[in-house]
Amino acid sequence: MSESNGKLNLEDVNIAEPAMVKRAVGAAAIGNITEWYDFGVYGYLATTIQKVFFSDLSPTMGTIATFGVFAVSFLIRPFGSFIFGPLGDKIGRKRVLSLTVIMMAAGTFILGIVPGYAQIGIAAPVLVLLARLLQGLSTGGEYGNAMTFIAEYAPDRRRGFFGSWLEFGTLTGYAFGATIATVLSTVLSADQLVSWGWRIPFLIALPLGAVGLYLRLRLEESPAFASLKAKEAQQKPTKSEFRSVFVDYWPVMLLVAGLVLAWNVTNYMLTSYIPTYLTDTLPKHGQPGAGETASEVLQIVVLVVLMIVITFLGRLSDRIGRRKVVMAGCVALVVLSLPSVLLLRSGGDTATLIGLLIMGLTLVCFSAVLPSTLPAMFPTHIRAGGLSIAFNISVSLFGGTTSTVMSALVAGTGDLNWPAYYLMGAGVVGAICIVLTRESARRPLSGSAPIVTSEAEARELVAAQR
What we know:
mainly alpha
């Protein structure tokens, strides 16, 4: 922006090359595929994992321990965000993303080669815990940098559409992991699955990570980060990023954390807790529930529906605004969560599918829009760090613990509607936060130059302010 008149000049506007934007989106999404592939496998094979690593515990305690190990990886995610978030603002988003994708894949691979409790005793669950901690540490820097990377490459008028592809990667990874786990559960006997079959999907993670690393190493840094580094070379150092994030931007941090709470409580309820709720919790309480294979197939069907819908919602948010779509999701959580859970409890494939679809379509209101909404809430120099820290603190406290909290609340109270109550509370928090959030659709990122798709659009943008 011209220092003399405060107005845009043509050289202040970045023109996004379509091929480069697509490569950036694909490279960022592959990390989400790797991460959520692991979550899909772990969630669908939770009962088998319990038998392999927690065979000395009662069924109820074994379920809580299995999800507890899942949740512990989330508790370390803030530490990963403290390391890799600011590092992305210092050395570049691309370098951090290259490191985190291979760390995630390595953690999943290690989990697949750990001997069971019957072979090495207590050392088995300890090693599983260490593998999950490695994944949590890397994931703490992965998602915030990935959101930032896509947002800084995408044209302002299409950021919602391109940002939604990040969560398309999430759904793809989860569906891929869930499908492999379902096929193995179907074609192998129970003994084969427990003895060796469960390891196969975890071992596949390493080549997935290698592909992700290759794609990310071929990219250049985002234009916003490159511009930031050029300016920093000519300026004196500013205050530390941690001080800036927690002192100057604490209201934004709270808003981000609240939005992430609504998003990820819904996310982990559907993808991590509900499979066990249908196949284990409901039958134990005399409810119909669903057979393991039927539940897995229905979940995959829902994921495919969400994959079809998500980019259309992202595109819609570019037209009508992010806040309207997110608010629709919050209202749906408050109004439709109890009907959704009651449908799951009623049994039968049709009722179960409708209940899952209600929950899934509510989730996609957040998944399609927040990857483009959240990065716009921070300026370029602290975007990756501030976003990573706020995102992962919220996920670790509320998202990743959802399965453990639900298992404990249902077991302790006997009330099978707790998933609905929890989702309704998340919806209220999300609604308050989105009301207080500034609309960012079709606007440049805070502290960044406008990004357009052509030179003609750049000239039009410059001429419009004169």
